[in-house]
Amino acid sequence: MVKGLYTAHTGMVNEMRRLDILSNNLANADTTAYKKEGTTSRTFADEMSVRMKDSSNYGQPKKLGEITYGVHLGQVYTDYSTGSFKVTDNTTDFALDGEGFFAIAFTDKEGNTSVKYTRDGAFTVNTEGYLVTKDGDYVLNATGARNGDPDEENFIRVDPNAAIAVDKMGYISQNNQIVGTLGIVDVDNYDYLEKYGENMYNLLDGGNRIASGARIEQGVLETSNVNVINEMVNMITIQRAYEAGQKVITSIDSTLDRAVNSVGKVQ
Question: Fewest CB atoms within 10 Å of the CB: 27, 122, 138, 158?
Fold first, then answer.
């Protein structure tokens, strides 16, 4: 009977954590190029149940069989499928048609600079002519992206007063002259990517950069791959499962109350 309390409790905790992931997806439904997360569930390891205070088997606990104490969150994974494209007609907005990432020279609050990766191509040109993200981090050229080198020599600099044209290979032209190349790379195993924050990814040790076959679309942004309707349906499913766990606990509590205060009452 008490095992049912454990099962219901772990099920409710699991649904709470699933709801946290789902809520984060909904909150980022309008975030450029956001990749939704999903979850898997798995049971706790089976335990061998024994009969307590059993003296009939020469003082050795008698095994009754294997039991499990419920379910818990297994894996939180990221769905890297491409979102739909939205036309902005902004010459510094870019989307990647295919697998790959823009490389960014990201500087943290401590002043440390490292290479991060993003699908968010909502860039702009600052007053010095550098191509930067909306947070002011520098976009790397092809050399910096390929080598993972965030040095200043690999920043993309253009004439802020001249029109910018970028072809599908990433070549940046102004006044009919090539002035730079957008750095696009891919990763051989996405399991080595982790979400860093600010819509960027960090490449973990063991992951390798590889060439990307993605094509660049100018004046276009990739939207998130979150399907709001599906997420809302999943939210209702989670709510129903959580309520079922509540009812199980209430029923067991009522049964225990009767067993202690009525059946086991000393007359």
Answer: 27
